[in-house]
Amino acid sequence: MDKLYLIKEGEISLKGGNRKLFEKRLRQNIKDKIRPYKSEIDRQKGRLYAYIEESAPEDIIDKALRTTSGIVGYAKAYRTEKDIEAIIRTAKEILPASSFRNEGTFRITVKREDKQFPLNSHQIAVELAKAVAEIFPALEVNLDDPDYTLFCEIRNEAYLYTDQIRCEGGLPAGTAGRGMLLLSGGIDSPVAGYMMAKRGMKCDAIYFHAYPYTSDEALEKVKTLASLIAPYTQGMRLFVVPFTDGQVHIRDNGYEEEATLMFRASMMQTAERIAKANDAVAIVTGEALSQVASQTLDAMSFTDSMTELLVIRPLVGMDKEDIIRIARRIGTYETSILPYEDCCVVFSPKHPVTRPVKEVSKRHFEELKMEGFIEDAVKNTKVYTFDSMGRELDA
Asked: pTM (2 decimals)?
């Protein structure tokens, strides 16, 4: 018998005429993650019902559903016929293996979509409360803030579930176009990729590698970060751009205080070429306003002028502690703080310019003649691919 999971949609339910497109993408995203295990997903008014083959491990299913944007919650569910005796019998079968314990408080929550069912929601709740009391006599009813909740939904059949898992919400990845994430080894950029995935963007990533100034350990760190956010972005390609020669050229021939600014300009132009070649229409960065010298309004305005693509900064107004909190929740924080510096840090000047004059900086960048370095970097880029569960695929 297949396992049954009741999946609750969030923002998708507010969509109008194009709602079916969002739901189709959500169903496909779930099925892609569950493979190679077979699954069927049905829909009923604000709910998806995923029937997944019995042999699928619980931890695989949990990771697949937790990391799929568009889902606000899910629960392992049990269905039975629309008969109160059958519903009570099923409740008594599933409660001993649930999170319910014989101490604390509980409530019954009933959603009666089928108004032809002979008992109303209150009457169903009363009958189920009696069943709970038989199994857990020490439990008391608390309708406001219970320790445990038994849910019952009356639809085409009756569905029962207890342990509801909260998920990411948002919109299914792949419904809002494709972006290219500038992925460093820091805390911020993985969070930026995660946040855009929640808004439906399908993200690939670019990492600028400056070996031997940045180590192979730094590259492995970034690959690990890509694997951790790939489930949220529904898979990811990581473009590793070798940019040592370009950065050394900037360091040796440019103005020291503008080194980071010139490098970021080169990054934008390189990212634009890779993005356009891979159908991405936006560049995503982890910049937050005034967090470092290169993230002032003037600096951002200059770097934006280096590309025709839309530059999105989902963290721009966020506090660092809020970013760290998200990084911990999505599992990237511990990897991000590993002590392997990225190329931005290695070549950072002691006293960087914070208020560049755009036209002056543009002239200085043109004088560096970076075109050849950018072309070589794009030509020698290596691509790593991670599937929708974060597993690296063979090249």
From this structure: 0.90
Q: Is residue 291 exposed (0-12), middle (13-18) or buried (19+ Cβ within 10 Å)?
A: middle
Assign residue 182 the CATH number of its domain: 3.40.50.620
Same domain, 26 and 105: yes
Task: Give the position of tokens 């020291």.
Answer: 256
**What are 84-95's pLDDT values in tens digits?**
999 999 999 999
| Residue 64's CATH number | 3.30.2130.30
Find the helix or strand (DSSP H, E) in which 215 lies: none
Regarding whether 326 and 260 lie in a shared domain, the answer is yes
Interval 327-337: pLDDT, tens: 999 999 999 99
Q: Which residues constitute the domain of residue 242?
A: 178-393
Closest C-alpha among 204, 222, 213, 308 to residue 259: 213
Task: Reply yes or no on whether the pLDDT at 346 is more than 70.
Answer: no
Q: Is 77 within 8 Å of 114 (Cβ atoms)?
A: no
- Tell me the pLDDT tens digit for each residue of 106-155: 999 999 999 999 999 999 999 999 999 999 999 999 999 999 999 999 99
Q: How many domains are contained in the chain? A: 2
- Give pLDDT tens digits for 359-376: 999 999 999 999 999 999
**Alpha carbons 357 and 301: distance in angstroms, whole number:** 10
Distances (CA, A) of 185 to 178, 223, 336: 22, 9, 6
Q: Which of 116, 133, 166 lies at the terminal end of a domain, its last residue?
A: 166
DSSP 199: B
